[in-house]
């Protein structure tokens, strides 16, 4: 940030009075601009025991497999954001079965939130941000071609929890260097 | 947002190519400015069965009772944000016992996340954003003087769950008109 989004003047980086962190503060109108972490919401879409994955058509990690997920937008709930991303990336409507994984990625100021979901009538397609989409049995998951650690961990936890059919909400911090897969 | 924070030129509101929502787009350098929901992290600090509440010294809801909570900052985890806010508002260090409540407030584009916690050695004070802080027994909670619906719901759920000592993560959407207390 170099300029004030309210008045167009230059901003400086300083600690405002009563604060304890550096902020971007307008040198003219005085407005303090806060920059906060962003939420990425997604689903773990399942149909007849198989998991729906999308191969990314865009960077980062183009060509790698992901769960449908994306930046939460203003005016929606986390569940709505997750369902919307699943439609956009996999053309799949899901019955949501609750929040499942939460990941903190403090080094990039992101919080991921995945919901479990059942793919309605097993219908899915290929959204514009995907090269292809596919339902995978556990033994066929492309573990070495997953896009992000958040995807790897959500799938690992899911197949583990499926043994007992208990799916408590899992919260984990993920920071590089990531554990070996 | 009226001006581009990158180059200082005016922004216009339009739907960028490949997008489906209106964004603030710079008329000069073309940068798209995304505005996303913010996370508010806090704790439910408990000591010897009593809950630590803070009476707010600042607007909104000055003079009303709250759980310690505030905007998550870049570079921290949700748990770190919750613990930091508890130190800032109640001068209390807490042993965190896991994520407990998640609230979507889509009308103001906020997501609240509360962690249960034990106040270490029962020590607490009055932070600069608080008028006073106090440990409350369940029967003494000032139900009609709570600052926000998120506080009311977290306390209600906690006292209910305490009967069975099971505290699964609870996720709720809170939108006006709020249910009658």
Automatic annotation (TrEMBL), chains A, B:
Q: Does the keyword Hydrolase apply?
A: yes
Q: Which Pfam families match?
A: NUDIX, Zn_ribbon_Nudix
Domain Nudix hydrolase intervals = 22-159
Q: Which UniProt keywords apply?
A: Hydrolase
Q: Name one GO molecular function term.
A: hydrolase activity
Under InterPro entries, the record lists: NUDIX_hydrolase-like_dom_sf, NUDIX_hydrolase_dom, Nudix_N
Q: Which PANTHER family match?
A: NUDIX HYDROLASE 23, NUDIX HYDROLASE 23, CHLOROPLASTIC
- What's the protein called, per UniProt? NUDIX hydrolase
Query: Source species, please?
Result: Ketobacter alkanivorans
Query: Which lineage is the organism of this entry classified under, starting from the top rank?
Result: Bacteria, Pseudomonadati, Pseudomonadota, Gammaproteobacteria, Pseudomonadales
């Amino acid at each position: 940030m170099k300029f004030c989004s309210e008045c167009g003047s230059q901003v400086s980086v300083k600690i405002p009075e009563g604060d304890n962190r550096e902020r971007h503060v307008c040198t003219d109108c005085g407005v303090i601009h806060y920059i906060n972490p962003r939420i990425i919401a997604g689903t773990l879409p399942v149909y007849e025991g198989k998991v729906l994955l999308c191969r990314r058509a865009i960077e980062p990690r183009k060509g790698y497999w992901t769960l449908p997920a994306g930046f939460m937008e203003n005016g929606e709930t986390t569940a709505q954001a997750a369902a919307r991303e699943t439609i956009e990336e996999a053309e799949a409507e899901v019955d949501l079965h609750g929040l499942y994984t939460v990941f903190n990625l403090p080094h990039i100021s992101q919080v991921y939130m995945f919901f479990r979901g059942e793919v309605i009538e097993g219908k899915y397609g290929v959204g514009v941000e995907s090269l292809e989409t596919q339902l995978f049995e556990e033994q066929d998951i492309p573990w070495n071609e997953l896009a992000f650690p958040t995807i790897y961990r959500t799938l690992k936890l899911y197949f583990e929890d499926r043994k007992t059919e208990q799916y408590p909400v899992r919260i984990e911090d993920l920071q590089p260097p990531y554990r070996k897969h």
